[in-house]
Give the backbone structure.
Amino acid sequence: MTNEELLQIIEKAAKKKTMKLNLASNQLSSLPPKISQLSKLTRLSLNNNQLSSLPPEITQLSNLTTLSLNNNQLGSLPLEICQLSKLTRLDLCDNQLGSLPPEISQLSNLTTLNLACNQLGSLPPEISQLSNLIKLNLASNQLGSLPPEISQLSNLTGLSLHNNQLSSLPREISQLSNLRWLDLSNNQISSLPPEISQLSNLRWLDLSNNQLNSLPPEISQLSNLRWLDLDNNPLTSPPPEIVEHGIEAIFSYLRERLEGSQGQ
């Protein structure tokens, strides 16, 4: 799409007071300042382009609730995005983000944040201020640890950490009391904190392809858990012959160990 064609689309959309605009897959390398004319816009898709930055004028899209920037060339999170205070969904999958700015805390209305397939090595403590977050996708990054402050995301129901470099979890993760879905597959986790047993609403837990030798017996207290994947771990407790019989056999084994330790 040429710049002239893009300007025509923006002008037409501005006249119509368009609320949704899809500019995906147009080989865009930049956006013109005139994007500011789209003051009524609530949804903007810029997926599958070649954007490495956004113009300052995008901050004037003050009614934007959904912004999709998947599969672009963003090396850092444009600070302009952090001023879009009405955003509830932000998609940044498949970029080149190496870090997040503290200013991300300003997006306090976010409910869905997709940061999968970037190059994040850590998370800022300020992420804890995204208190309305329900789904957080951090899959396929380079995270070696999680900040304890992640425990403050009390409304989180889904958390994907698939394919990172985690070797452990903070005990504070136990405070995510609404969490139902947790993907920790393809990491380097060698042990789990016993406090994980406090995730009382957890229904789905993927621990496949890690370095777990044992599970804390307390995990058997996850009474709502319906699916547990332990494939490709060097487990000895529970042993493979127990694991292959499924979650009921695993929990029965772990309960016996828990009761035995409490009886001592």
Q: What stands out?
A: The chain has one domain: 3-263. The helical segments are 3-15, 240-243, 247-263.
